[in-house]
Amino acid sequence: MEDYDYLFKIVLIGNAGVGKTCLVRRFTQGLFPPGQGATIGVDFMIKTVEIKGVKVKIWDTAGQERFRSITQSYYRSANALILTYDITCEESFRCLPEWLREIEQYANSQVLTILVEVHQQRAEEFAEAQSMLYLETSAKESDNVEKLFLDLACQLIREAKQNTLDNNESSPMPGEGKNINYLSCCSTN
Ligand SMILES: Nc1nc2c(ncn2[C@@H]2O[C@H](COP(=O)(O)OP(=O)(O)OP(=O)(O)O)[C@@H](O)[C@H]2O)c(=O)[nH]1
């Protein structure tokens, strides 16, 4: 018997090198990895968050175009998508509309999307225009990383309680069996 009430699937997406892996490693392991190599395909990490009975499964996807067909297959059963952008990389900002098209095409229509690691005003405006949640983070300084995942978990719990999330049994992540316990209970008390 698993010791959690909620299990949420969170997938990080965004251009190569914007800091997805560092964000996940900061959150799951509390460290900023030196010399982080590019992600190949998809990496998986799991963490019990500091909300009673909640676990988050995190998929860190490769930003490189050549892995796109692999990573797209992980969108469908995600409860939340973290769309990352790097303040120092103009290209990663310009690609945001493209990522939103990907989300529209491959993700569940109920998916919660948050735009992160954006420090410029225009990005805040972009998130607002798309009705997206928005947060600035730094994996290196450990700014807002815990808050990002905890806020997402809280929002997902609220939505789950309103029964707005799909029952995901019909669309497990690639390679998963049907035994993943998704939203197995409706109480966090
Ligand atoms: N200064 C600073 N550098 C960061 C931060 N997060 C990531 N980096 C650097 O950005 C580079 C890329 O980080 P990754 O986490 O590997 O990027 P990624 O988005 O996972 O890249 P792919 O796996 O290729 O998609 C690394 O050299 C990190 O050290 C941050 O918060 N601050």
UniProtKB/TrEMBL annotation:
One Gene Ontology cellular component annotation held by this UniProt entry: cytoplasmic vesicle
Main location: membrane
Compartments (UniProt record): Autolysosome membrane; Cytoplasmic vesicle, Autophagosome membrane; Golgi apparatus, cis-Golgi network membrane; Golgi apparatus, trans-Golgi network membrane
The enzyme's E.C. designation: 3.6.5.2
Keywords: Cytoplasm, Cytoplasmic vesicle, Golgi apparatus, GTP-binding, Hydrolase, Lipoprotein, Lysosome, Magnesium, Membrane, Metal-binding, Methylation, Nucleotide-binding, Prenylation
Membrane topology summary: Lipid-anchor
Cofactor(s), names only, from the UniProt record: Mg(2+)
Pfam family, one: Ras
Catalytic activity: GTP + H2O = GDP + phosphate + H(+)
GO MF, one annotated term: GTP binding
InterPro entries assigned to the protein according to its UniProt record, in alphabetical order: P-loop_NTPase, Rab_GTPases_membrane_traffic, Small_GTP-bd, Small_GTPase
Function: The small GTPases Rab are key regulators of intracellular membrane trafficking, from the formation of transport vesicles to their fusion with membranes. Rabs cycle between an inactive GDP-bound form and an active GTP-bound form that is able to recruit to membranes different sets of downstream effectors directly responsible for vesicle formation, movement, tethering and fusion. RAB30 is required for maintaining the structural integrity of the Golgi apparatus, possibly by mediating interactions with cytoplasmic scaffolding proteins.
Family as reported in the entry's similarity comment: Belongs to the small GTPase superfamily. Rab family.
Name by which UniProt lists this protein: Ras-related protein Rab-30
